[in-house]
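Example 9 (inverse folding). The structure is encoded as follows.
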C-alpha cells in the first residue's frame, strides 16, 4: 500500500501527478501545514524536514516497508518501482536527473521565494520582489531554450522531470511571468496540461487549498524561530 502525505501545493502535486500517471492505487493523508500538522512527531518520523510531500510504501525495495521524504527522491523511487517515466538507459536517465535536480535546486526554491515575497510577506520588500521575479524570468528562459531543442524538458520523452516542473510553471501568472515571452515553454505547458492523469494529479484535493492565510497560519508556516 502506498500512502501519500500531501497538501495541494506544487511540491505535493508533483507526486499526485506521478501516482496518477502510473495508474497506482494510493491512500492520501492530508497534512494541514497551516495548522502545524507537519511538526507532529508522527509526521516528523517520516519527514524530518517538516515538509510535504512524503510517501510510505508497505512493499519497499526489499519487501519491507519504507518511508521517503523530498519530492525528487519520491519521484525517482516511484520511477524505479514502476519502470515508468524514468528511463533505464543511462544517458537518458542522466538527463532526467539533471533536470530534476535543476527543479529541486532552482525552480522550486526561487519560484517559492517569488510566491513568498509577492503573496505572503507581511510588508512589501521591493528589492526581494524584483529579485525573485527576475530570477523566475531567468529560469523560464533556461527552460525555454531547452524546450526549443527538445519536446520535453529532459529530451524526447515525458518524464518525472516534467512532472516536477509543471506545477510550478502552472503558477506563471502569480509569478508575474508573461508566457508570450517563452513560446517553447508555453508549447510544453499547453501539451502537458491536457494529459488526463496530470490534470487529475493537479486537482487532487484542490478544494482544500487555502485562498488566503490568517496571521496565525502565516506564523505557523513562516516563523522560523518557532521551528528550531
Ligand atoms: N525540498 C522539498 C520542499 C517541500 C516543501 O517546501 N513543502 C512545503 C509545502 S510546498 C511544506 O511542506 N512546508 C511546510 C513547512 O515548511 O513548515 C521537496 O521538494 O519535497
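The amino acid assigned to each position is listed next.
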Amino acid at each position: 500500500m502506498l500512502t501519500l502525505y500531501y497538501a495541494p501545493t506544487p511540491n505535493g502535486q508533483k507526486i499526485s501527478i506521478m501516482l496518477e500517471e502510473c495508474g497506482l492505487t494510493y491512500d492520501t493523508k492530508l497534512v494541514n501545514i497551516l495548522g502545524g500538522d507537519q511538526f507532529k512527531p508522527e509526521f516528523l518520523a517520516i519527514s524530518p524536514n517538516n515538509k510535504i510531500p512524503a510517501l510510505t510504501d508497505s512493499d519497499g525495495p526489499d519487501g519491507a516497508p519504507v518511508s521517503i521524504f523530498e519530492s525528487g527522491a519520491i519521484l525517482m523511487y516511484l520511477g524505479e518501482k514502476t519502470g515508468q517515466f524514468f528511463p533505464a538507459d543511462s544517458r537518458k536517465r542522466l538527463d532526467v536527473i539533471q533536470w530534476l535536480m535543476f527543479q529541486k535546486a532552482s525552480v522550486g526554491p526561487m519560484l517559492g521565494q517569488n510566491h513568498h515575497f509577492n503573496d505572503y510577506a507581511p510588508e512589501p520588500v521591493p528589492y526581494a520582489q524584483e529579485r525573485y521575479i527576475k530570477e523566475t524570468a531567468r529560469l523560464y528562459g533556461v527552460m525555454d531554450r531547452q524546450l526549443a531543442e527538445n519536446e520535453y524538458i529532459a529530451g524526447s520523452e515525458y518524464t518525472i522531470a516534467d512532472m516536477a516542473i509543471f506545477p510550478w510553471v502552472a503558477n506563471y501568472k502569480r509569478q508575474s511571468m508573461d508566457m508570450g515571452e517563452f513560446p517553447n515553454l508555453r508549447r510544453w505547458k499547453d501539451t502537458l496540461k491536457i494529459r488526463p492523469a496530470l490534470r487529475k494529479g493537479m486537482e487532487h484535493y484542490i478544494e482544500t487549498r487555502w485562498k488566503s492565510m490568517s496571521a496565525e497560519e502565516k506564523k505557523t508556516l513562516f516563523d522560523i524561530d518557532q521551528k528550531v
